[in-house]
């Protein structure tokens, strides 16, 4: 997935069990990477978009991802578009989804206090070390050694999409040009796949994304945004640390 993944297990379990759970999580993420890579010619995604693989012959995971991407395209008015670059690239959904699934698998296997971070996507379950909420720093979009916000999160997800590391890598599918107006978008909510996709969609919208994000608070998703000209906006329920 082109990023580093970190896993922290805070459960009071034997070390051998914790190592096994971490290994299982890594194996799942490597499986996702192999299946959905847009760089590997023999990945399932690449074979499907070349026409070498029919939809009915695709894995259940790929069919689910395609369905979810279609739903998100409708929900965002076309701003979340897996075809924005001209050919299928579901990466904007897959990373958050794969980490969300990894967290659910860990919970089912007995880990109810953990943290998985993949780039700007983080899923936390239960409380952190010492029984306190997990503390998540949101990077300052211009000064890499500083934080814009510190969040307290228990049982939730944090996703950040921005232009400060990879440049103009998110496209506005309506204008057909790189997204402008917003420098950093962070979304906090119960599901990482949704939070990640919505952060990407809002970034693609530009400043109109501020109004769109404000409406997502009713669905349990809070946000923090920095514009290209340095203004900062937060939704009222953002879990900012004291």
Description:
By secondary structure, this protein is an alpha+beta fold. It is 36% helix and 23% strand. The protein is built from six helices and eleven strands. Helix 1 packs antiparallel against helix 4, helix 4 packs antiparallel against helix 5 and helix 5 packs antiparallel against helix 6. The model has no long low-confidence stretch (mean pLDDT 94).
Mean pLDDT: 94
Strand fraction: 15-25%
Number of strands: 11
Please give the share of residues in helix.
Answer: 25-40%
Radius of gyration computed on alpha carbons: 18 Å
Counted by DSSP, the helix tally is: 6
Secondary-structure-derived class: alpha+beta
Largest sheet: 7 strands, antiparallel
Topology of helices and strands:
Layout: E1 5-9, H1 15-36, H2 44-50, H3 60-75, H4 91-108, E2 114-118, E3 121-125, E4 134-139, E5 147-153, E6 156-162, E7 171-172, E8 177-178, E9 182-189, H5 192-205, H6 208-216, E10 222-227, E11 232-234
Antiparallel strand pairs: 1-2, 2-3, 3-6, 4-5, 6-9, 7-8, 9-10, 10-11
């Amino acid at each position: 997935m082109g990023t580093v993944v970190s896993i922290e297990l805070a459960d009071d379990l034997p070390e051998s069990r914790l190592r096994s759970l971490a290994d299982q999580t890594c194996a799942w993420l490597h499986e996702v990477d192999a299946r959905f890579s847009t760089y590997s010619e023999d990945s399932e995604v690449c074979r499907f978009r070349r026409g070498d693989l029919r939809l009915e012959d695709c894995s259940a995971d790929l069919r689910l991802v395609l369905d979810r991407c279609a739903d998100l395209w409708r929900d965002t008015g076309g701003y979340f578009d897996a075809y924005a670059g001209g050919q299928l690239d579901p990466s904007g959904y897959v990373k958050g989804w794969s980490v969300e699934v990894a967290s659910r698998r860990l919970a089912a296997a007995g880990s109810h206090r953990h943290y998985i971070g993949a780039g700007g996507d983080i899923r936390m379950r239960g409380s952190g070390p010492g029984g306190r909420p997990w503390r998540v720093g949101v990077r300052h979009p211009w000064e890499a050694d500083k934080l814009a916000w510190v969040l307290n999160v228990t049982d939730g997800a944090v996703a950040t999409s921005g232009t400060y590391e990879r440049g103009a890598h998110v496209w506005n599918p309506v204008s057909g040009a790189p997204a402008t107006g917003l420098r950093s978008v962070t979304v906090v909510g119960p599901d990482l796949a949704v939070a990640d996709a919505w952060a990407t969609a809002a970034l693609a919208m530009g400043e109109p994304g501020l109004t769109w994000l404000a409406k997502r608070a009713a669905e349990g998703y809070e946000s923090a945004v920095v514009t290209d000209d340095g203004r900062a906006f937060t939704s009222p329920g953002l879990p900012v640390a004291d």
